[in-house]
Design a protein that fits this description.
The protein is built from eight helices and ten strands. The protein is of the alpha+beta class and 305 residues long. The protein has a domain of 133 residues: Alpha-Beta Plaits (2-Layer Sandwich), CATH 3.30.70.1910. The strands form two sheets. It has a five-stranded antiparallel β-sheet with strand order 8-1-2-10-9, with helices on both faces. A five-stranded antiparallel β-sheet has the order 6-3-5-4-7, with helices on both faces. The longest helix has 26 residues.
């Protein structure tokens, strides 16, 4: 009986203009099986599925919405719908009212400054929290441009709770997505995520055998050192992160984790990155420059002792 063929795979998701993330792991297949059909071990696949469960929602939000322009809103009901289907019907009716108001409104300041005076397409992604017979809420991400009071008027079924302009971080809108996940809004999976038809999908790429098993193991060691803060304040971030950032030259590392699969003796690595030419990237560039000067001064001082 022929042994299984094993090789490395790297999958990447490009989320709009600012963020991307990558998974690196080993896959195995039968000798005559097409490479595209090769799969990770069941243990590794379980880890990958866990990573992707919330990440797929984050990828969608990062790819379609912008910091400082778009909105994150919790909608509640004065008279609670009895079922999730009824909740979806009410939400879709609300979105039709919003779209009509969207077409009639004037240009926003953002559109004048950043979109050449052209109206943006209206986008929305929402998740229903609650089960049939229980209290319903709707966590909503939507394109900004309408005033709060107009949104509240168009909703009309209760208060608009805690409306916020989206604020990002190195991981994009992860804080908002984690809040939705914590409330149970993502527990039912992707087939319970709803939205407008014009939502774009994050770009997906897959590469096989572009990184060796040994390189994956070395990256895992680097990530464990980073997460344990080894060398922090002594070795510049540029050097500590170099083994990862050299693979993605246009990005800074936001965070990474490495999980070891005991049953197969393999690692599953998840890396999150953000572009250097973004606002967050400029802040990080300045931080690293200041850090380097502090380390140089510290070395000079202790070297003189």
């Amino acid at each position: 009986m022929k042994s299984m063929i094993e090789y490395s795979r790297e999958t990447g998701y490009n989320m709009g203009l600012e963020y991307c993330d990558a998974l690196l792991y080993r896959v195995r297949c039968k000798p005559k099986q097409r490479r595209a059909l090769g799969k990770p071990t069941s243990e590794a696949q379980a880890v990958i599925n866990e990573k992707n469960r919330n990440m797929n929602f984050l990828r969608s939000i990062n790819a379609n919405f912008l910091e400082g322009r778009d909105l994150f809103i919790l909608f509640t009901f004065r008279e609670n719908p009895k079922t999730r289907a009824e909740t979806k019907r009410l939400m879709d009716n609300f979105l039709r009212r919003v779209k009509r108001a969207w077409e009639k409104r004037g240009l926003s300041e953002w559109e004048i400054r950043h979109n050449k005076g052209k109206k943006l397409p209206f986008k929305c992604r929402y998740v229903i929290e609650g089960d049939d017979g229980k209290r319903m809420h709707v966590h909503t991400f939507m394109t900004g441009g309408l005033a709060w009071q107009e949104i509240k008027y168009l909703w009309g079924m209760a208060d608009v709770v805690n409306p916020r302009v989206l604020q990002g971080s190195k991981n994009g809108f992860e804080a908002a997505v984690k809040y939705v996940a914590k409330q149970g809004g993502l527990a039912k999976g992707e087939h319970h995520w709803y939205g407008t038809r014009n939502l774009v999908k994050p770009d997906y790429a897959e590469r096989n055998n572009q990184i060796s098993r040994e390189d994956i193991e070395e990256l895992a060691d680097v990530i464990e050192d980073i997460n344990a803060h080894v060398g922090e304040g002594v070795t510049p971030t540029e050097e500590r992160f170099a083994p990862i950032e050299e693979r993605y030259p246009n990005y800074y590392l936001a965070e990474a984790d490495a999980k070891y699969i005991e049953a197969f003796g393999e690692w599953v690595i998840h890396i999150k990155l953000y572009r250097k030419d973004t606002e967050a990237g400029k802040i990080e560039e300045n931080r690293r420059a200041a850090e380097l000067e502090q380390i140089k001064a510290r070395r000079a001082k202790f070297g003189a002792l």
